[in-house]
Amino acid sequence: MTKSIVCLQPLTPSQQAKIREAAPGYTLELGSAKEPDLQQLAGAEIVIGWAKGIGEALLDGESQLRWVQSWSAGIDKMPLPRLQERGVLLTTASGVHAEPIAAVIFGFILSFTRNLHKAVLNQSKREWHSYGNETELSGKTAVIFGTGAIGGETARIAKAFRMKTIGVSRTGKPAADFDEVFQISQWQEAVSQGDFVINTLPLTDDTHHLFNAALFSAFKEGSYYINIGRGGTTHTGDLIEALQSGHIRGAGLDVFETEPLPQDHPLWGMEQVIITPHSAGNTDRYADRIVDIITENLKSYIATGSPSLNKVDYSQQY
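Predicted structure:
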């Protein structure tokens, strides 16, 4: 009996060929995340991507589903308890975003240190004005919450600017390009050293509103906060208060608790805040990179029964 892979994202002919080559004995069917075919999905052993409304079809008693390869790194909107209960393997796209997101992080950092965000506003008003408080990155400290692919790439680039790098992770294990790494329970000691505090964390029960008034109060006076992880890791009201008080000098935000960010939200009117619309991970190389992950995982799944890359630990929610 032929086994089925259903992909809910568009693939080029060459990308389809790579997947088929990695999975002999499987058919590859293309579906749509916007208009999923529940009958098509019901017969799938492997699903690439996810969509609203497909959980019931994929997780009922008749489903053939054994493995879901997420099209994104974040999985907080997926039915993790149901997937775990059914014994479904889940893998993510972790690593795909490292280069574009690190570029956005340093876009924020360079904008703040060189007042580029203010220069753009002045240009729109035809104002010739220099602020005189521009600074440099050499000798500054970047505190990076999350030492995975994104955090690691950010630390590597920071080293090129001769910055000190401090990591914060669940385990506190040493990691490449980090001068030191603290356990997340040591957040106060870590953030007190940061000129830039960068949040790359996933949203889990443990990280929800981790960045709150208590944590912001431990920030170094006049430091900057950057969040490209998940909006729910930050208490937005507490962040606004820290910005209004001047304790935090500015914030670069790509993710928010409510998305899209409402038009009447106070963050829009804060000149010390740079907002991007959850687009930090966008890149024209996205599909090619995730197909490379998929093909490696397919080879491992066929050989051993389990994918080898980015397998989710349900107990950690990532």
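Summary: The chain has two domains: 3-95+284-304, 98-275.
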